[in-house]
Amino acid sequence: METQSARIIVLGAGAWGTTFAQVLADVGNYVTLWARDERTAGAINEFHTSKYLPGVVLPRKVSATTTVEPLLSEADGIVVALPSDALQEALPKFLGLITEDQEVISLTKGLFHGQFTSQIIAEAWDRPRDTITVISGPNLANEIIARQPAATVVACPQAERAKRVGKWCDAGYFRPYYSVDSLGCEVAGVVKNVIALAVGAAAGMGLGKNTSSTLITRGLAEMTRLGLALGANGETFLGLAGIGDLSTTCTSELSRNYSFGFNIGRGLTVPQALAASKGPCEGVKSCQSVLELANQAGVEMPITESVVDVIKHGHTAAQMGERLLGRARKRDGVSIELV
Ligand SMILES: NC(=O)C1=CN([C@@H]2O[C@H](COP(=O)(O)OP(=O)(O)OC[C@H]3O[C@@H](n4cnc5c(N)ncnc54)[C@H](O)[C@@H]3O)[C@@H](O)[C@H]2O)C=CC1
Ligand SMILES: O=C(CO)COP(=O)(O)O
């Protein structure tokens, strides 16, 4: 039987990677963060601080390095916590250093050039996609670093892998639920960012809770339709990785996607809103790819379409609202036949 403590490498020493490293350390694992620059690694090793998490003192068990290659073969698990647009540059250098019996865990909620994170990792490291575990849920780093209670979904088509990884991050305040539907978790994690842009924009325009609840509910319908069309399990979208994460991201000023949308709603341009962001806005990067995926699958995603118009075609938040309200009347619900 495996002992409780595992050796885990976290690739990406930003807000979520560092927070997840603390979760893993709290459970008793040996955790090393791979940081891109010496300054970030030095701050973690010498002062137990991170510029991504102001005011936080990290556990001494969390260390960092800029040279992770020699540690990879000894690790039980490798966590990917990089922004989606960094994966294709960062991952290939580790090809051949990670074997199939090691657990690979994705925290990245992105769709880059039409590929979900697990697909990019699988290709970069030449391993089957169904060996990759996805962790996704209502998990704002700034709350979890303060050890506020939250739950998450640990999903892998190979259920035993999800169980193994779930034990590593079962910190009490951070509570794993298991699933085999990693695809559904990835779809939900990507689409909720796009919907949060729209909800944030509505709030930035001064619109109230009826508008945001309308967008969240119809956003859930969009997410579910796309997931079903791609072969995900519909239940996932009613769980923590679906409505759970959607409601967190669409209602918190801590969310970079919601805040980006808010700034668009109050009149900032896309470049201005990006410059004001406190971290990656995955919804900005993924919205076009989500729409293309939906078109290929024959799924209608009007909120996503209106977000693409804002991000790519210079539409204002007000035009986005007019467009959504001007659509033909529909039946309530999420069924793909009823779009
Ligand atoms: N912050 C949060 O609350 C949560 C974030 N996520 C997801 O986690 C992913 C990462 O987000 P954050 O940690 O918040 O971003 P962040 O901006 O705080 O950290 C990203 C880290 O990746 C590093 N990095 C960027 N490009 C790199 C490259 N080419 N090579 C090596 N390192 C590179 C940066 O230096 C930084 O340390 C995103 O996909 C996000 O959607 C998921 C759940 C919660
Ligand atoms: O995924 C997240 C919370 O679960 C973080 O959302 P943002 O990337 O919008 O900050």
UniProtKB/TrEMBL annotation:
Any one Gene Ontology cellular component term annotated for this protein:
cytosol
Which residues of this UniProt protein bind substrate?
109, 256-257
Give GO terms: molecular function aspect only.
glycerol-3-phosphate dehydrogenase (NAD+) activity; glycerol-3-phosphate dehydrogenase (NADP+) activity; NAD binding
Give the metabolic or biological pathway. Membrane lipid metabolism; glycerophospholipid metabolism
Ligand binding (NAD(+)): 12-17, 141, 256
PROSITE patterns xrefs:
NAD_G3PDH
Coiled coil ranges (UniProt) are none
What does the entry list as the binding residues for NADPH?
16, 36, 52, 109, 141, 256, 282
Q: Which Pfam families match?
A: NAD_Gly3P_dh_C, NAD_Gly3P_dh_N
Active site location: 192 (proton acceptor)
| Domain Glycerol-3-phosphate dehydrogenase NAD-dependent N-terminal residues, every copy | 8-160
Q: What is its EC number?
A: 1.1.1.94
Ranges where the Glycerol-3-phosphate dehydrogenase NAD-dependent C-terminal domain occurs:
181-320
List the catalysed reactions.
Answer: sn-glycerol 3-phosphate + NADP(+) = dihydroxyacetone phosphate + NADPH + H(+); sn-glycerol 3-phosphate + NAD(+) = dihydroxyacetone phosphate + NADH + H(+)
UniProt-annotated location(s):
Cytoplasm
Provide the residue positions that the database annotates as binding sn-glycerol 3-phosphate.
109, 137, 192, 245, 255-257
Keywords from UniProt, A to Z, are:
Cytoplasm, Lipid biosynthesis, Lipid metabolism, NAD, NADP, Nucleotide-binding, Oxidoreductase, Phospholipid biosynthesis, Phospholipid metabolism
GO BP annotation list? carbohydrate metabolic process; glycerol-3-phosphate biosynthetic process; glycerol-3-phosphate catabolic process; glycerophospholipid metabolic process; phospholipid biosynthetic process
Functional note: Catalyzes the reduction of the glycolytic intermediate dihydroxyacetone phosphate (DHAP) to sn-glycerol 3-phosphate (G3P), the key precursor for phospholipid synthesis.
Cited HAMAP family: NAD_Glyc3P_dehydrog
Q: What family is reported? A: Belongs to the NAD-dependent glycerol-3-phosphate dehydrogenase family.
Q: What is this protein called?
A: Glycerol-3-phosphate dehydrogenase [NAD(P)+]
Lineage of the species this protein comes from: Bacteria, Bacillati, Actinomycetota, Actinomycetes, Actinomycetales
